[in-house]
């Protein structure tokens, strides 16, 4: 207890404030992009922080409404007809996730290729930078939580930037430049470690500067004043008796229909995959390299999603943008995630009027910094130095996510990643060398069916009249399919005048049918 509230509390509180400022516009933007009430995104953010944070075993990841699920949510609400029916499917999806966690399905998260995870992080960083350029220039036609290439306003990521330069706002540009200057200054040790200034994160100073500059415009340059869509927009209640109007309850009237269950399973499976991906990425960024129990995380997400559905929230997953902001801001324990949820709940209810004065261009500066930390040039260099087997899946994942969306891009990256895993596995498990017309086929460690196709291809290239040695003394396991390929090669070698010698490998004398 002393360690938690004495040693780590100051780091977790500072981090939670930064995560709150990052999460606030994204919660609202994702809700709007999903075709749901704005409050549903904020509810999901609160649930992701407090409920999921309480049950999660992760020290650094932060959960909230998922940008990767916006298309799924939008289509689900449209096909079901009402938001209330969608909430009911979310409750069931949470129970399905809970079941997956209890069945230890989270172990699947350990099999994602590292190059794909690295590519996902870098792509999200680039998307953050590209998507925030319009907001930084004061062109706020697209929602802040939209991460897809093809946008709801019929533009795409790059055409939106073009229009932003054409229809820019000088007031927004000045605010984002000041905010960026403050954030960069607070990355320097002399301010970051200062006893007074360092006690408050640079993100808060940046937000305060944005509010003050925008207010001063009214007195000095009224034409530059930002209002309406250029500011955060939180639903405001005048007293606690109106809180009930912010909550929407689920409708289970269609629970016996097939579409209901199809959507519930889709939400559970897609949400679980996105969570496991983000969890793996967050663990890799954790300075202390702590490993999160993935099945326990599915249990936590399941509880969070069912609770979110019961009170009108969006689906919740672990979110890499919030998690990155949390880690880079110095979070030590999961209390930071919980504190950010508490801040969302308390400040939304107590000072919505002040929060609604925050310019989106100011928040864009914070997201610029998060994006840069995910997609620094040094990351590309380090992956390049690891070789083509890492670089190609990495780049494919980056560009696939940039030009589609998170889930489609991950799927494409996984396909390329799997190909290179198989290729690398073959190179490590089977080695064929040639010297003066003699061939040595070495089977090393475990040789699985994944090596079948490349092994057949390599054996077919061995010319007639050669001597071949098949050495399997180092192989601990040889798959049945591999044994059949070797048997067939040995049996047909007499016809090709190939002399075969085996070491540590038994073969059949008759050809199998």
Automatic annotation (TrEMBL):
The keyword Transmembrane helix applies. The chain crosses the membrane at residues 15-35, 42-62, 82-103, 115-133, 161-184, 196-217, 260-282, 303-325, 337-355, 362-384, 390-422. It is a multi-pass membrane protein. It comes from the Bacteria. It is found in: Membrane. Pfam families: Sulfate_transp. Residues 10-379 form the SLC26A/SulP transporter domain. Keywords: Membrane, Transmembrane, Transmembrane helix. PANTHER family: SULFATE TRANSPORTER. This is SulP family inorganic anion transporter.
